[in-house]
Amino acid sequence: MTRSFQQNDSWDSTTEFTDNVEKRETLGKVFEFLFLLGLLIGLFILALLLFDILRDGLGRFLSPGFLTETPSRFPDQGGIRPAIISSILLGVVVILVTVPIGVGAALYLEEYAPKVWWTAIIEINISNLAGVPSIVYGLLGLGVFNYLLRFGPALISGALTLSLLSLPVIIVTAREAIRAVPDSLRNASYGLGVTKWRTISSHVIPYAIPGILTGVIISVSRAIGDAASLIVVGAVGFLTFDPGLFQRFMALPIQIYSYITRPEPGFADAAAATIIALLLLILTLNGVAIYIRQRFSTR
């Protein structure tokens, strides 16, 4: 009788477990469908936006002189050459400033810094800074670079402001990439008598480069497409010369904003064409970074 009771109890437990598994599988399929539906809706809206932009701006984008001439006050004339040059210079300066500083800060916090209260405060603040609106960085750049360092409304002020905007993202992603390197690589290197810096430079950094480049791609793409901070720093919407580092400047997002605010209908097509140019610039930079990342991943 006791044996029969134990068998019945075991059968009830197995049945209950099977029912729970089936309910969880059903719930998982429901959420899978909802997530897939959300993805399809997002892709559909993105496709509509791209179609609308290409329909309005492709003709103007392919028109002679649009990429090689300076802006004009007439919607069917002129081009966006100063804006393209400014955006490229901004991206180059952002990469040159943020990558060494961001990766160096991530290496220090992850490999050298002691795990004490003040490093925890720094880590929390860096994570919080990654979510600060760009307009706040624009006000900071205006006060520090325009007035305190007296650079004025020059391209270098905009580039350094965008560097401040990009640094937290690079530091956070670089730390995660460095943290993902297996400790067995470090221990094997230390076991052979290799110094800590040699271990980091020869094993940790090469292994973490794909993850670091992911952060660089995200941050630089955000910086090139940002307009709010550049407006605060002093970017202009009309420029008839190619800018230098210490001259007045414009950028593709500012050019788009300038075109959209004008009442003539032709400027809407010019804005769409400028959006196409900005997308191609960002995709080109992302493609180069992805290629480099894949090369290091293969190695």
Automatic annotation (TrEMBL):
The keyword Transmembrane applies. Its main location: membrane. The chain crosses the membrane at residues 33-54, 83-109, 129-148, 200-220, 227-250, 270-292. It comes from Nostoc paludosum FACHB-159. It is a multi-pass membrane protein. It comes from the Bacteria. InterPro entries: MetI-like (IPR000515), MetI-like_sf (IPR035906), Phosphate_PstA (IPR005672). Keywords: Cell membrane, Membrane, Transmembrane, Transmembrane helix, Transport. The lineage of its organism: Bacteria, Bacillati, Cyanobacteriota, Cyanophyceae, Nostocales. Residues 84-289 form the ABC transmembrane type-1 domain. Belongs to the binding-protein-dependent transport system permease family. CysTW subfamily. PROSITE patterns: ABC_TM1. This is Phosphate transport system permease protein PstA.
